[in-house]
Amino acid sequence: MSKEVCIQTPVSFKDISSLEIGDIVYVTGTVYTMRDMGHERALKMLKNREKLPFNLKNMALWHCGPIIRQKNDKWEVVVAGSTSSSRFTQLTAELVELTGLRCVIGKGIMGAEMVNAAKKYGAIYLISTGGAASLYANSIEKVEEVYWIDLGMPEAIWVMRVNRLGPLIVGIDTRGNSLTDRTMKKVATKLDQIARKSGVDLSKTYVWWPRQKTIGSEKFYR
Amino acid sequence: MIAAKLIEEVATKLFREAATTLPEDVIKKLEEARRKEINPIARAHLESMIKSTEIAKMKSIPLCQDTGIPYFFIKKGLGIKIEGNLEMAISNAVIKVTKELPLRENVIHPLTKVNSGTNTGWGIPHIHYEVEHSSDFIEIIAVPRGFGSEAKSSLVWITTSQDIPEAITRCVLDQVVAAGGDPCPPTIIGVGVGGFADTALTLAKKALFRDPIGSHNPDPLVMELEDRIFKAVNSTGIGPMGTGGETTTLAVHVEISGSHTAVVPVGITFQCWAARYSKAIIYRNGEVRYLTHPKLGEE
Q: Which of B288, B286, B289 shows the shortest CA–CA distance to B1?
């Protein structure tokens, strides 16, 4: 049975160690947004042994490029929601290792590297509902700070104060369980039956081009 | 003669409304899905989706933070003349909505990654033109196209020595499984069959914005294929956002075109559940009809 909890940043291992995949979470406190170019710059700096201008230890990182407007010299969030986290599986996993980041918010599948990092360093991945940016905007109280604005509005690091951001679903827990892996494994067990019912052969290559392993080819599910 | 100024005005309304307000038929499909789901996580996702559409509409703010990059379908009656520059009119509309709503600044140079800040530049907004011989109007469809779904598009080539509907069903099923929760299911699936590499994918994209959602292609063979794919995809259990559930797709729309005797290109693309688009017709006499968002006509 899934539980519903609220966690507050900074997050300790103890705060999240009892969470399990499928639990519903609301986040309160400070969250940092980061997308492709932010990951690129942060990892480059960390690997050059430079210090980041912000501290992610025990913090929450949001795969999000918000819409922001400037009002009376202040930044104001118009809406904010998650981008596809599968782009950051490896990049965010490295950040977890290098910064002590504890909580990642995003959407969709995060692969094996992130599952391993969550288990090894005690972090979690929370799955939000993609597209529900106007809903999440309601729980954003203010923009506290912005870094790397030269990367453009979506790619900059926006530091936001949030109050009960959610509902978010635990997608990867600190024991290394993954909700989407579990779902896709269940899907895999049904494929033979679905194929039979819809009159397709999973052991056949239907596609002439592209020639590499692709959709519609023999070994796709193997 | 239709004035470019009028086109700019209509395109501005369409693009703004598309970003903030889902067409009613799409919302109905989401509500239907919510009634069907028993999985509590799937229900939570659908609740958030529907709540978000209500908030965005009420506050007139973007529904999703990825307001995409602008794509316009324009169908022009052969006899229609435009006074002024159509491309400029569409571009001005995008610049205006980007600044005023505002939208996220999403358009970058593909090599330097420099952001234009206006959602225009280097050929964007993209305009897909069609000429219709018999019609007496211009039809405009405005699409703020998000890339969670666009970037899960594929093109494959199927030889004609095999059963084509079977091959298409298999390819779409594989693509849905490979994409999982990334294109923000429940999605609309667009499939374009035949033609050329580019036209198969364009047909697929056009299919996404078939009005109303879930209506069938009039060709019974194509209709049958739409049903076959729909059933296969919705029995996977991938569910909303890929975390499990009954509803993986809201609708499957297939369009066809004549094809080479050797090999058939199949373009496959998704539209996320936040199926944002808006459509209007401008008649020769300047009369405007808003089709997906009729309230725009009252402004």
A: B286
Model ipTM value: 0.93
- What backbone phi and psi angles, to 5 degrees, belong to B246? -80, -30
Instruction: For residue A141, give the nearest of A126, A153, A159 by alpha carbon.
Output: A159
| A83/B104 Cβ within 8 A | no
User: Domains plus CATH for chain B?
Assistant: 2-21+63-145+276-298 (3.30.1330), 148-271 (no CATH)
Task: Note the pLDDT tens digit of each residue in A148-206.
Answer: 999 999 999 999 999 999 999 999 999 999 999 999 999 999 999 999 999 999 999 99
Both tokens of residue B25? 């038929």
Q: For residue B1, how many other CB atoms are within 10 A of its CB?
A: 10
Residue A184 in contact with partner chain B when CB distance is under 8 A: yes
Question: For A113, phi and psi rounded to 5 degrees?
Answer: -60, -40
> Where do the structural domains in chain A lie, given as residue ranges?
4-177, 179-222
Six token digits for residue B10: 């209509």
- Give exposure, B203-226, as e/b (b: 16+ Cβ within 10 Å): bbbbbbbbeebbebbeeeebeebb
Of A65, A67, A186, the CB nearest to B102: A67
Q: Which residue has the tokens 């779409």?
A: B172
How close does chain A come to B280, measured CA to CA in Å? 24
Give, in order, the Cα–Cα distances in Å from B291 to each of B14, B18, B282, B295, B297: 10, 12, 11, 9, 9
Question: Which residues of A belong to the active site?
Answer: 39
Contact A31, A53 (CB under 8 A): no
Bridge partners, B252 (sequence order): B189
Q: Contact B37/B50 with Cβ under 8 angstroms?
A: no
Residues A13-63: tens digit of each pLDDT: 999 999 999 999 999 999 999 999 999 999 999 999 999 999 999 999 999
The answer to whether B42 and B185 have CB atoms below 8 angstroms apart is no
Q: Does A200 touch chain B (CB under 8 A)?
A: yes
What distance in Å separates the CA atoms of residue B143 and residue B22, rounded to the nearest whole number?
Answer: 11
CA distance B85 to chain A (A): 30
The domain over range A4-177 is classified in CATH as 3.20.130.10 = yes
Asked if A31 and A168 touch (Cβ cutoff 8 Å), the reply is no
A182-A134-B36 Cα angle (round to 5): 45
Cα separation, B43 vs A18, in Å, equals 23
